[in-house]
Amino acid sequence: MAIGSYEKCKKYIESHTPKTETKHVKRKPHPCITISRQTGAGAQAVCKHLIKILEEKSVPDDIHWTFFDRKLIEKVLEDHHLPKRISSYLVEDKYRHISSAVNELLGLHPTQWTILHKTTETILQLARMGKAVIVGRGGNIITSKLKNAFHVRLIAPLQFRIDYIKDFYNFDTKEAEAYIKRGDEARKNYLKSNFGKDIDDNLNYHLILNTGLLSYEEAAETIAAAVMKKFPKSFT
Known about the structure:
Helix 2 (43-57) crosses helix 9 (216-230). A five-stranded parallel β-sheet has the order 2-3-1-4-5, with helices on both faces. The radius of gyration is 18 Å and the shape is globular. The two termini are 28 Å apart. The chain has one domain (29-234): P-loop containing nucleotide triphosphate hydrolases (Rossmann fold, 3-Layer(aba) Sandwich). It is built from nine helices and five strands; from the N terminus they run αβαβαααβαβααβα. The chain has helices spanning 5-15, 43-57, 70-80, 97-106, 112-129, 139-142, 158-169, 173-195, 216-230, and strands spanning 32-37, 66-68, 132-135, 149-155, 207-210. 33% of the residues are buried.
């Protein structure tokens, strides 16, 4: 029976939470991977292959590698008991400081800083658990001090990304170009305004891969090989 994204997220959290109290045993955390991406660089496709490789190569236990992108929004809402109607405010390009302040005064939704704090808290929790692939939302910056974190950025030529978006969403060329421009600007602004970092700073990543030159499967294999090399005790 196919397990939906939300169920996979729940199972991941439950696997880290013992049902009965046991004596605390300190262990070295499993690695986690953050993925920053240009719009249309194929992050979802790469992660699909990556999760499969990591599952096959990991030291067997009851914790499974899990991919968090949109599921991360659900996890934030679940963890912090925020009403479902605010999920739209967690999209990376929604906030502007002035509108946030006005809406706070009117009581329309939680402030930008509340959402950012809760999202950051959740990303750190997932990263510390390990065996998580976290896409976007400044994951590489938030987890930059964690020794078990490995940071990847996916890029691709503009025409490649346009073709990908056209095919994926059935857009025409202009629609695809506009979608990519909005997405790239949103992510750049999100990182700059919230963390004071440049998303294009190569020094923020262990590995930068061009999916215009590598297939999604090749990109996944490259990431997996690098992670296994860096964290050999977590893999067979």
